[in-house]
Specification:
Helices cover 44% and strands 15% of the residues. With 366 residues, it is α/β, with parallel strands linked by helices. It has a domain at 2-115: Beta Polymerase, domain 2 (2-Layer Sandwich), CATH 3.30.460. The strands form three sheets. The chain has a four-stranded mixed β-sheet. Strands 7-8-10-9 form a four-stranded mixed β-sheet. A hairpin with a 3-residue loop joins β9 (256-264) and β10. α3 (118-146) crosses α6. The two termini are 15 Å apart.
Length: 366
């Protein structure tokens, strides 16, 4: 495994300077309403800035590039902002899991997940637990294929598993002792960095490998929180979502994901994900459909999933029209079957199916 992009220590003043530069940049856009940040900078050099930009509903797409965080400081802004219209600002708890909002300038627009009624909040956290840990499988698969790991990004991703751990604790979900031990190792890794001590590659890779295992445990526990019993028959054994195909198998006890780069017509390269998933996950994804079957027997959970799907879909649609060049983050639903505007071409489906049959016949993901 090749380790790239080791993190470097950064002063907190560098973070203050970066957000000031960004604030000055976007203040030139007449339709920007507010700027927030989320999270905190407790480990400078590992912590990143997560800006949330609230804009008017009819934001001019020609100005969307001005909202990008590119070319300010890539060690502080490691991804784009969340650009959201005023009409969706109060619904942000259904779009992304975020806490500790800090307003930098503008109007008060956002509401936090902790402002929701307890039952709705807990159901929403169950969704984030499943969706977040499932998205990590895609990133682990990329590393497994490329044999290359970006240490700066993965130090942050590994730490984010402590948030999933806290969600499970808040939901009072019991976990095996091994989970608690791995979380402690993740904290040791983080604290070693904060104390400006050397993190050797062996230590980093050990915790990285443990983080894959704990991510799987969190996903399965989160899924069991939502789908209590698998008494229902699933109608679909395979789902496509553009560059992602999910096969549901009764013969695995944890998910398996493979990442491949597929060349089409000797010209286009598409990043593809081939996934083996638990049948319970198909039942879970059903909750995001327009007209789901009531698989869960939990009306309030179904209502939360339906609202989350509507908010994410509306945000996707709005971004394509009004902010196509800001590289904005948005919500993730795992398999947005009815939200996707462009269906996978048949040639890609055939290629993915061929990769699946070949890969899982000869290769096991650890």
């Amino acid at each position: 495994m090749i380790i790239t992009n080791p993190p470097v220590h950064i002063s907190k003043s560098d973070y203050e300077r970066a957000i000031s530069i960004y604030a000055n940049k976007i203040s030139k856009c007449k339709d920007v309403v507010s700027l927030y940040t989320m999270g905190s900078v407790k480990a400078p050099g590992l912590s990143d800035l997560d800006p949330i930009v609230i804009v008017k509903d009819n934001y001019d797409p020609e100005e969307s590039e001005l909202l990008s965080t590119k070319e300010i400081n890539e060690k502080i802004f490691i991804h784009g902002p969340v650009v959201i219209p005023v009409k969706l600002a109060s619904k942000i708890p259904f779009l992304i899991y975020a806490t500790n909002f800090v307003k930098f300038f503008g109007e008060n627009c956002l509401s936090e997940i902790n402002d929701l009624p307890l039952e709705k909040k807990n159901n929403l956290m169950r969704c984030y637990l499943v969706d977040f840990t499932e998205s990590r499988f895609l990133q682990f698969a990329e590393v497994n294929t490329e044999k290359k790991i970006d240490q700066r990004k993965w130090m942050t991703r590994i730490w984010s598993l402590t948030h999933s751990y806290n969600i499970l604790k808040n939901l009072k979900v019991s976990m095996p002792r091994e989970c608690h031990n791995i979380i402690e190792n993740i904290k040791v890794l983080r604290n070693t960095w904060v104390r400006k001590q050397v993190i050797d590659n062996n230590m980093f890779m050990k915790v990285y490998n443990q983080s894959y295992k704990i991510n799987s445990l969190f996903f399965i526990n989160g899924l069991n929180c939502v789908v209590k019993h698998q008494s229902q028959h699933i109608n679909k054994k395979m789902l496509f979502s553009n560059n992602k195909v999910i096969y549901f198998s009764d013969f695995i006890d944890s998910p398996r994901y493979i990442f491949k780069r597929v060349k089409i017509c000797k010209r286009y390269i598409i990043n593809c994900y081939i996934c083996q998933q638990l049948p319970k996950y198909a039942i879970y994804l059903n909750g995001y459909q327009k007209k789901p079957d009531n698989y869960y027997g939990n009306v309030s959970l179904m209502q939360v999933m339906g609202e989350r799907a509507r908010v994410v879909t509306e945000h996707w649609t709005w971004l394509r029209k009004h902010s196509p060049n800001a590289n904005s983050m948005t919500g993730y639903l795992g398999y947005p079957s009815w939200h996707t505007s462009i269906s996978a071409p048949i040639i890609l489906k055939l290629l993915l199916n061929r990769i699946y049959l070949k890969a899982f016949a000869t290769f096991n993901i650890n």
